[in-house]
């Protein structure tokens, strides 16, 4: 699918907003790629983000997937809109072990108010890539809300 | 609902396993309460865990909810079983602002292999408490898997 | 929780709209109870609605839960609004066998545009009641859409 | 993705089991295609399966998606296993209007006990096809359960 962005400066807008997500900096996540309706984020494996078996915590994987899905939706929104997550569901497919977590989000259906996004999370180790989780989420466009910057 | 735990030492087992979740220490989460089929976790608000609008990131809220739900299920498992998240869904109900995040997980239906758990997340500020998210998840009991400690 | 309905005639509005859901009549479902933010629906067991093992099909259970959740949200909406399901998730907890399916939906958080609703489905046989499924869904209020009656 | 079926007679097994789902016959659904890990089902539009706005009821769409996802998982199971739905989530993307509902399910990750499946539902009218819903679900393989035929 290919989408027509409403704001030609969507990539800058996505990267600026991402840089204000302090949780992303705390976890060590970064933007790998931005296109209209598509955002990839990366998180290098860190031992201090693991659960009791030494894998990345499912919630940490979800945090990166949620940001990727939110920004994929945000890339198609108007310049004065903000984005909030309405809901998401995650299925965990394999243990999150490896060198690098990559979350790839793609808009499934853009809408005036609600946008549905899917995201796959993979763990990369050398040349090998294993899909470890998949998300489907609903993102909401907010307008004119005082106190919300985009 | 009240449940009969299979392992009388379930509280120690939950607290020991929680202490091995390095992500929980990194985020600053702690165990507030453990009962058979019920676990409450707490996370004091931290500015470095926020999204772009200054609220706790939905993924961070999910991380605490997931651990709470996982350990609620784990509290009813046998002493030699480990727990893994199969899937969860989160609905975000209000912005996660306030002093303290509390995630309260309750087992909805325990099972031999799969246990369904619900969890509510609230933000507490002084006397006030606002429900900000709700999770429904499926947790799996694993047995005799080499390399997995419970 | 108790809710203040915006339309004092909400019960009539719910029952009228339900009577226009031809799928409900085809399946044999009926309204058991309507309150502000709460709707119970019933479906007597029918052999022609089963899956391959002779239980009620999970999709049929979902159909009744979805209508119950939609109308629980609808009961709190304004008189000129229509309701549509945005998304729902269902966890199946036990085989759907018994005499009567009862779906009980309760609004979890009402909103101007989106309302989050939870619903439990039970199978009743004589005095016994078994919870067989649970739903969490998001319902949307629509205004001024030509062609949509409420 | 391509999968190696454990039972070479998987197509017959899927079609036989589908023919025992009385709900499918009641709704008028049929098997359109079976491959290893892939099942397409079809349901011609019927006015008596609609909700209050004249679209196919979201629950009816879900019923067909659930059967498609269940049988996609079942196609990869061993000859003596039965399948049950553990959970699914559906996002509704557009009104279900048109001549024919087609549900296309694809296994995302097969497993010994649990299989994750995704399914898209489209409405077809002449040459046009609109995606109206998407499902992600977890299906469980059951062995040696007395009283369950596959």
Strand content of the residues of chain A, in percent? Answer: 35-45%
Distance between the termini of chain A: 25 Å
Task: Name the quaternary structure.
Answer: homotetramer
β-strand number of chain A:
6
Structural class of chain A: alpha+beta
Low-confidence stretches of chain A: none
Placed side by side, the strands forming the largest sheet of chain A appear as 1-2-4-5-6-3
> What overall geometry of chain A do the principal axes of the alpha carbons give?
globular
- Helix count of chain A? 3
Residue share in helix of chain A? 10-25%
**Main β-sheet description of chain A:** 6 strands, antiparallel
Q: Determine the mean pLDDT of chain A.
A: 96
Task: Give the SSE order of chain A as H and E letters.
Answer: HHEEHEEEE
Biggest interchain interface, per-side counts: A-B, 40 and 40 residues
CA radius of gyration of chain A: 15 Å
Describe it for me?
The structure is a homotetramer of 150-residue chains. The first copy, chain A, is an alpha+beta fold and 150 residues long. Helix content of chain A is 22%, strand content 42%. Chain A has helices at residues 10-19, 22-27, 58-74, and strands at 30-35, 38-44, 81-92, 100-109, 114-125, 128-143. In chain A, 56% of the residues are buried. The A-C interface holds A 86-87, 89, 113-114, 138, 140 and C 86-87, 89, 113-114, 138, 140. Strand 3 (81-92) of chain A pairs antiparallel with strand 3 (81-92) of chain B.
């Amino acid at each position: 699918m290919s989408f027509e962005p409403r704001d030609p400066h969507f990539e800058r807008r996505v990267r600026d907003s991402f840089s204000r997500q302090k949780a992303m900096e705390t976890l060590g996540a970064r933007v790998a790629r931005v296109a209209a309706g598509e955002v990839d984020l990366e998180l290098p494996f860190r031992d201090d983000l693991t659960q009791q078996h030494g894998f990345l915590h499912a919630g940490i994987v979800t945090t990166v997937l949620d940001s990727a899905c939110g920004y994929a939706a945000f890339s198609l929104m108007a310049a004065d809109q903000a984005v909030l997550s309405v809901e998401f569901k995650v299925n965990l497919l394999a243990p999150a072990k490896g060198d690098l977590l990559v979350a790839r989000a793609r808009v499934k259906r853009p809408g005036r108010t609600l946008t549905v996004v899917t995201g796959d999370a993979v763990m990369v180790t050398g040349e090998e890539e294993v899909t470890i989780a998949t998300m489907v989420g609903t993102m909401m466009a907010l307008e004119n809300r005082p106190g919300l910057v985009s």
